[in-house]
Specification:
The longest helix is centred in the first third of the chain and has 20 residues, at 63-82. Strand 6 and strand 7 (183-190) form a beta hairpin. 35% of the residues lie in helices and 22% in strands. 28% of the residues are buried. By secondary structure, the protein is an alpha/beta fold. Residues 18-222 form the DUF1995 domain. This is DUF1995 domain-containing protein. Pfam families: DUF1995.
Length: 254
């Protein structure tokens, strides 16, 4: 497949923990490019969004609409980079699929992206993907990853059809942030590399504490942190409570 990306994608394989939305977009772009070269036409992404009007105690008081203000510029920047490839060039049309859940789409002849897709908008997402069977289709920050179970998409034949459709998307880039027992953790996947678990210590630079071939579960992250020297998860519950109290007080004093 001739994409015009070969030199850039093959010579920029180092994985790092990005700082800021620009580096997140750059890292996601390279992951998508590599996966596209390997024949992955349907991809799912999870972008870590910069906080807008938030605090350490309440990340998104405005909900998904507030998140959209941070996510849309990142998605548009990513698409501008991707459409430089000869086989993905052409204008993109933007539209809001669901105003209440901030579900938005950008569609062109061979390139499309859907931001914050929900179970309720799966019909439109499917139509977008099937209309571009030879193009690149991206699902960005799907809302069902935030708590919806696959069973919420129905039962019987409908559920199986939905599972098959969602299974056709490969998770090629993901950067998520968790706070587990007082530890600030970031989970990073940038295709074709394995999953990386980063621990951000308050007194130093983030450290990669594990690399895994499969995506670790929340429980597995808890176990990993308990076994990591110097983590808050390895403290007693009284020590963790004191640490969380100090964190909350510091956030309120800002």
């Amino acid at each position: 497949m001739q994409s015009g990306w070969e030199h850039e994608a093959q010579t920029t394989s180092r994985v790092y923990l990005p700082k800021g939305p620009e580096q997140v977009v750059e890292q996601a772009k390279l992951a998508v490019q590599r996966a596209w070269q390997d024949g992955m036409r349907r991809q799912s992404l999870e972008l870590l969004l910069p906080l807008i009007g938030a605090t350490d105690l309440d990340d998104w008081p405005g909900g998904v609409r507030q998140q959209a203000k941070a996510a849309m510029p990142m998605v548009e920047s990513l698409l501008r980079e991707l459409k430089q490839a000869p086989d993905l060039q052409g204008p993109l049309r933007g539209e809001v699929i669901d105003q209440g859940d901030a579900v938005s789409a950008w569609t062109g002849d061979n390139l499309a992206a859907v931001l914050f897709p929900t179970a309720e908008t799966l019909r439109q997402v499917r139509e977008i993907a099937e209309a571009r069977s030879q193009g690149l289709v991206l699902l960005v920050n799907a809302q069902w990853q935030g708590g919806q179970a696959i069973s919420d998409f129905g039962v019987g034949p409908w559920r199986r059809r939905t599972e098959a459709f969602l299974g056709s998307f490969t998770e090629t880039y993901s950067l998520r942030q968790f706070r587990i027992f007082g530890d600030n953790v970031r989970l990073l996947k940038a295709y074709p590399n394995d999953w990386q678990v980063w621990l951000a210590r308050e007194d130093g630079e983030p450290e990669c504490i594990s690399t895994q071939a499969t995506k670790p579960t929340y429980r597995e992250l808890e176990t990993l942190l308990r076994a990591t020297e110097g983590s808050n998860s390895g403290l007693t519950w009284v020590q963790r409570l004191q640490s969380e109290f100090a964190f909350n007080k510091k956030a309120l004093d800002r």
